[in-house]
Amino acid sequence: xxxxxxxxxxxxxxxxxxxxxxxxxxxxxxxxxxxxxxxxxxxxxxxxxxxxxxxxxxxxxxxxxxxxxxxxxxxxxxxxxxxxxxxxxxxxxxxxxxxxxxxxxxxxxxxxxxxxxxxxxxxxxxxxxxxxxxxxxxxxxxxxxxxxxxxxxxxxxxxxxxxxxxxxxxxxxxxxxxxxxxxxxxx
Length: 187
Description:
The structure is a single chain. By secondary structure, this protein is of the alpha+beta class. It contains three helices and 13 strands. It has helices at residues 35-49, 87-92, 99-104, and strands at residues 24-26, 52-55, 59-60, 67-68, 73-75, 112-113, 127-130, 137-138, 148-150, 158-160, 166-168, 174-177, 183-186. A four-stranded antiparallel beta sheet has the order 7-13-12-11, with no helix packed on it. Strands 1-2-5 form a three-stranded mixed beta sheet, with helices on one face. Strands 3-4 form a two-stranded parallel ribbon. β1 (24-26), α1 (35-49) and β2 (52-55) form a beta-alpha-beta unit. Mean pLDDT is 74; it is low at 1-18 and 78-83.
């Protein structure tokens, strides 16, 4: 587990547990079932929901880039490889996209890499333009976009935003997302 992660309390009779034992969750995400953190997340999610969880220990996507579309780990069982699953279990894991789309998908699913840009001082009644995405990237070249502004002084701190729109923070600061992906911050 991450040293910064706080423990997730799990009650045996949790109100989140789904009574139907045949409920399944399929995660099409690269390497989600790898490492201690992946195992812990999927095991706890199974305990909370009661669902059978299917995830991948490999890249998801184009085979030429090292990917595939198999969910080769199953929880609550110990990590199992897809080859040991019954044909019925394999049939239950359906692709979220068409077979044609999977065969022709040119990339692998990848998480964007965001860099903490730190604080941006805006002094007095001024507007500053900030390009927060300039030092961020995505492994397979997807376009990164800003979808929310986090206001740490507001209890509802995730404020959705779209290009051309603005949000007002609890401090009175106005944050506008420009169509070019930069932010205008006005105090």
